[in-house]
Amino acid sequence: MRISTALSLFLFCFSSALADSASGDSKKLYKPKDAECTITSPYSENFFDLNKLKRTPGAAPPQMDWQVKGLDYGANFSINICAPVLADTSKVEGIDEAGRANVGAYYEKNGTIYSIGSVSTTPQFRGRKLILAYENGSPCPNAPELRKAALMSLMCDHEQFHKPSIAFVGQFNDCAYFFEVRTAAACPTLNQAQALGPGAVFGAIMGVFVLVYLIGGIFYQRTVMHARGWRQIPHYHAWAATLNFFWVRLFVAPILFILRILSFITCGRLGSSGRRSTSIRRSSSSIEQAGWKRHDEWA
Ligand SMILES: *[C@@H]1O[C@H](CO)[C@@H](O)[C@H](O)[C@H]1NC(C)=O
Ligand SMILES: *[C@@H]1O[C@H](CO)[C@@H](O)[C@H](O)[C@H]1NC(C)=O
């Protein structure tokens, strides 16, 4: 009776834990914050990872900032995504020491380097548009209290897999700059951190299967067969025989085998000492009493 109480308590706890993890609400409660330079769309739950667009210093072969032609603007732009530009920004116009390490995009005109924004690692969704905004660049020429800023619109383009195609769309008052970034990195992907792998899905299905088998089987054994104690477990005799088989094969037989080798080595060297051989014989006969009839296999 105590066994069945413990078993039903265990099954109750196990099934409620399973129900907790399976309920849809927990997904919202424990949803991890998006990692740097990634975002989950609030509309489609699609996952976007812009880390592939990040240029890193010290990479082999050496990398450069993304180069964007300014065309009629009269200057070209250098941009990094989710990381500060790799180029030297120690002489950038109107930015303090700390800000110089965080320049995300710049251009050079008439020998002066102008920042068009500090780096941001948090892409955003405006409606269905994936955007990345850099702010706090060099002071705007006509309004020194304002600072240059750049707005990038990221668009999914499977053709742009190895590098993005960045186009300068336009600017206003040498203060606000707009870019269009076509890249495969802006195409939705599966979030590796949140998605269940095939192994986990298989494990969950197997777990449910075992649970249904146990609960259904115990219910049947109790109510129809009027079984009590351990016999409530479905196919109790088959499971017990299987367990016994593995117990003997995996534990008892190897231990016995090692004991026999040890006794062979020690007795062979010392000459057969009566005390050791009787102890071995006693242990093997006790195994025999425990239900193992294959003793002759080792003789
Ligand atoms: C911008 O780059 C192009 C080549 O990529 C070059 O021909 C042009 O002179 C550059 N413009 C400026 C203002 O440096
Ligand atoms: C370039 O800068 C110098 C001073 O540094 C200035 O005299 C000159 O007018 C500037 N040229 C242009 C085209 O802005």
Automatic annotation (TrEMBL):
Q: Which GO terms describe its biological process?
A: vacuolar transport
> Which is one Pfam family of this protein?
Man-6-P_recep
InterPro entries reported in the protein's UniProt record: Man-6-P_rcpt, Man6P_isomerase_rcpt-bd_dom_sf, MRH_dom
Which residue ranges run through the membrane? 200-220, 241-262
- Domain of life of the organism in this record? Eukaryota
Q: Name one GO cellular component term.
A: endosome membrane
Record domain MRH: where: 35-189
Subcellular location(s) of the protein: Endomembrane system
State the name under which the record lists this protein. Similar to Putative mannose 6-phosphate receptor-like protein C530.09c acc. no. O59745
Task: List the source organism.
Answer: Pyronema omphalodes (strain CBS 100304)
